[in-house]
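quick one if you have a minute, typing this from the bus. theres a chain ive been looking at and ive put its sequence and its fold in token form underneath. please have a look and point out which stretches look like helix strand or loop to you. anything you notice is useful, everything is just below.

***
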Amino acid sequence: MIGLHRLGFVAVVLATLPALADEAWPPRGKSELLQRFQIKEARQGVGVDADAFYAVDNSAIAKYDKKTGAFISKWEGAAIHLDSAAVVDGKIYAAHSNYPARPMTSSIEIWDAASMRHTESHSLGIERGSLTWLDRDAHGVWWGAFANYNRLLDKSPLAHGNNHNTQVVRFDRDWRVAEAWVYPDALVEKFGDMSNSGGSWGPDGKLYVTGHDNPELYVMELPEIGSELKWVGTIPVEIGGQGFAFDHSQPGVIYGIIRKKDGGEVTVSRVTPPAIN
């Protein structure tokens, strides 16, 4: 007969296994900080191309030299809340919303990256939340996320939708939502009272996203069945959540931001994803 003390030991081990499994999954990658720049406009996000990076503030986008961090030029205008930037084929695409007003409305704003001249605006009106990021995948398809928030900015229960309603969407060629997915509950908990702030497709074909504050990238895959994205990895990195972008001229390198009271920083890091089966 097994002694009672042995049964107690076995029970403790079995009770511990789920916690150990939670700590081991999803697996963690690593990152290496390469550069950092003091950039006052680094408040909401950053985009990057082969020669420059573009720091995003609520109503401004500033262009800086990648090698030196020297200021080049700036657009500033009537935008309310710009979030993130994707630089594709010589154009800057930025998510824009009326955050923190309600009802939540969003638009897609476009600039010529060379001249920093605003060229196009596509209004999405009242949609699924506040548009926080845009990015184009390797197949030329545009994606984005509509954030919802638990933080009650005016103390009203109707101020924003629950952040479990945050959705990643695939757009068609006319910027209409063609498909949509949600995040798993465990990842939404990482967002706290806020939501998904940044997103960019990596060179490995996986979607990388950020929350509002945490110094982490979350690696996502589309599910084989259903509407919930798969959280397959986490990478600690020198950022403060918010918008970020992969530098496609340097595979595996991301540009991110860290917000500060007196401005902000743009950080450049090389990320190594975890081994994912």
About this structure: The longest helix spans residues 4-24. The chain is about 10% helix and 45% strand. Confidence is low (pLDDT under 50) at residues 1-22. The radius of gyration is 20 Å.
